[in-house]
Specification:
InterPro entries: FAD-bd (IPR002938), FAD/NAD-bd_sf (IPR036188), FAD_aromatic-hydroxylase (IPR051704). Pfam families: FAD_binding_3. GO terms for molecular function: FAD binding. The protein is α/β, with parallel strands linked by helices. It has a single domain, classed as FAD/NAD(P)-binding domain (3-Layer(bba) Sandwich). Helices cover 36% and strands 25% of the residues. It contains 14 helices and 18 strands. The strands form 4 sheets. A 7-stranded mixed beta sheet has the order 5-4-13-14-15-12-16, with helices on both faces. A 6-stranded mixed beta sheet has the order 7-2-1-11-18-17, sandwiched between helices. It is globular, with a radius of gyration of 21 Å. Bound molecules: flavin-adenine dinucleotide (FAD).
């Protein structure tokens, strides 16, 4: 039986483990966080491809139960006065769920069939004819047949197997931070968005209005703060948003007590090939479309479905399966990446005049003939793949 190591226990990794276990593979997930990671913004699933994958996984019901139910979003000025309202049906997908809730569902669904190793990371990969010897930062070395990097935008496996991040990550010049705050505005299935030149702050209700998420985006060149330096990241956010109006100061004060804190640059991953020998990449690690595309999580879930299905169909022959994985998913991933292009400028115009213009446009949008265009384009992109049916491939792989 093939023995597969997956790096990363967020969305793509556990989704892949789910399918691989169903097809009879043995899976281990190594995650560098010390335990399950909650937190993050709300993610959308839209259209047939996304919903079909969730249904075939048997988790659609659970995902629907945990849906955020967020409705219209209000665009406010620095005094909190509503300038425009964005109806939910303009941009929301079919099901919206907090990333942390989705990750928890996936973790629950796989922990009985997958070995989870938290608090560790791959240190080196040494491939030969029969497999890969993997050295870890903490645990003893082990042998695996295949290794999959599902470890996100700053993938460790990509660096080890393909080369430095700069070769594959296109920085979009924006940083983003998300954390949990009390729902002090009493928001009921809604959110407020406040734009200033080149920056955006927002808060929206979560978990049936019992809490809220604060999300900040700001245009910036790369920062030199380390990815694990939370204090440094919070300092940068404070420097950017303190005294800029609306609820920013209160949200920044609450940031210190938040149970979670996500901070990252917004980027896209562009690679000619997603595999090398016995190693392959999945999700953001391979083809991150950027968080501004609204497509990353759906794409990662579809990617996991296809990669596992092709491995099963090829009875574990990674040469055949990895090539097919890229053939089936390549155009779809490219389409999702297009959605991320250009959104940064549109989302955070850099002058006051442009912000006012955009608010005016949003005010009028519900009455304009093209009001559903953005939602239609997003749906068309999300549905732009004919999902192979791998049900017949659900046999045990050969060695
Ligand atoms: C806690 C958290 C919060 C997030 N919040 C947001 C958000 O608010 N907005 C947004 O745009 N995107 C967010 N994301 C990213 C979003 O989940 C992904 O863009 C998308 O869902 C695709 O998922 P993925 O599994 O491919 O990558 P990711 O969700 O990025 O998951 C990668 C996983 O790999 C782990 N990992 C990283 N390095 C190593 C290593 N060396 N060894 C082992 N494991 C490693 C990470 O801890 C993470 O669990 C968040 C991710 C996480 C982990």
């Amino acid at each position: 039986m093939k023995n597969i190591l997956i790096s990363g226990a967020s969305v793509a990794g556990p989704a892949l483990a789910h399918w691989l276990a169903r097809y009879g593979f043995t899976t281990t997930i190594v995650e560098n966080a010390p335990g399950f990671r909650d937190g993050g913004y709300a993610v959308d699933f839209r259209g047939d491809a996304h919903l079909t994958v969730l249904r075939r996984m048997g988790i659609l019901g659970e995902v629907e139960q945990a849906r955020t139910g967020t409705g219209a979003m209000a665009y406010v000025n620095r005094d909190g006065k509503v300038q425009a309202s964005m109806p939910a049906d303009l941009f929301a997908g079919d099901v919206e769920i907090l990333r942390g809730d989705l990750a928890r569902i996936l973790h629950r669904a796989t922990r009985g069939t997958t070995e989870y190793v938290f608090g560790d990371s791959i240190a080196s990969l040494d491939e030969d004819e029969d497999g890969v010897t993997v050295a870890f930062e903490r645990s003893a070395p082990r042998r695996f047949d295949l290794v999959i990097g599902a470890d996100g935008l700053h993938s460790n496996v990509r660096r080890l197997a393909f080369g430095p991040e700069e070769r594959f990550v296109r920085d979009l010049g924006v940083h983003c931070a998300v954390f949990t705050v009390p729902n002090h505005l009493g928001l009921q299935y809604t959110g407020h968005v406040y734009r200033t030149g080149g920056q955006l702050a927002s808060v929206y209700s979560a978990r049936h209005n019992t809490e809220a998420r604060a999300a900040f985006y700001f245009a910036s060149p790369e920062t030199d703060v380390h990815r694990r330096d939370v204090a440094g990241q919070q300092r940068i956010l404070t420097e950017r948003f303190a005294g800029t109006g609306w609820e920013c100061d209160r949200l920044l004060a609450e940031m210190r007590n938040a149970p979670d804190f996500y901070f990252d640059s917004v980027g896209q991953v562009r690679m000619d090939t997603w595999s090398r020998g016995r190693v392959a990449l999945l999700g953001d690690a391979a083809y991150c479309p950027s968080s501004l595309s609204g497509m990353g999580t759906g794409l990662a879930m579809v990617g996991a479905y296809v990669l596992a299905g092709e491995l099963a169909a090829a009875r574990g022959d990674h040469r055949v399966a990895y090539a097919r994985y890229q053939d089936v998913l390549g155009e779809y991933a490219a389409g999702c990446q297009k959605m991320g292009d250009g959104v940064a400028k549109l989302m955070m115009p850099d002058s006051r005049f442009a912000v006012a213009l955009l608010n005016r446009y949003y005010k009028l949008l519900p009455y304009l003939p093209g009001k559903n265009m953005a939602a239609k384009i997003a749906r068309k992109t999300a549905e732009g793949i004919a999902l192979p049916d791998y049900a017949g491939a659900a046999t045990r792989p050969t060695c």
